[in-house]
Amino acid sequence: MAKKVVATLQKKEAKNFAKVIRAVKSEKTGAYTFKEEIVTVDQVKDTLAKS
After folding, report:
1. What are the two backbone dihedrals, phi and then psi, of residue 39, each rounded to the nearest 5 degrees?
2. pLDDT-based confidence at residue 32 (cuts at 50, 70, 90)
3. Is the Cβ–Cβ distance between 36 and 20 less than 8 Å?
4. What is the pTM of this model?
5. What pLDDT does residue 34 have?
6. Are 37 and 19 contacting, i.e. CB atoms less than 8 angstroms apart?
7. pLDDT, tens only, 20-31
8. Checking phi first, is residue 19 left (phi over 0); if not, alpha (psi -120 to 50) or beta?
9. How many CA atoms lie within 13 Å of 32's alpha carbon, on the beta-carbon side?
10. Is the pLDDT of residue 2 over 70?
């Protein structure tokens, strides 16, 4: 799966995208889960600022 995403991000028309991975703590169990998003480079700071 990761190889496919990396290959997609390396194409000429897709160089303006970044993969953002955030750790989110579950309210129920207290365990951390990871949320992955592919966003444009301009939106990286906004995406990381989300709660």
Report:
1. -130, 165
2. very high
3. yes
4. 0.56
5. 92
6. yes
7. 998 889 999 999
8. beta
9. 5
10. no
Give the CA count within 13 Å in the CB-facing half-sphere of 16. 4
CA pair distance 26, 6, nearest whole angstrom: 28
Q: For the stretch 4-23, what's the b/e string if a residue is b when 16 or more beta carbons lie within 10 angstroms of its beta carbon?
A: eeeeeeeeeeeeebeebeee
Mean pLDDT to the nearest integer, 16-22: 88
39-44, long-range: CB < 8 A, 24+ apart: 40/16, 41/16, 41/17, 42/16, 44/18, 44/20
Amino acid at 40: T
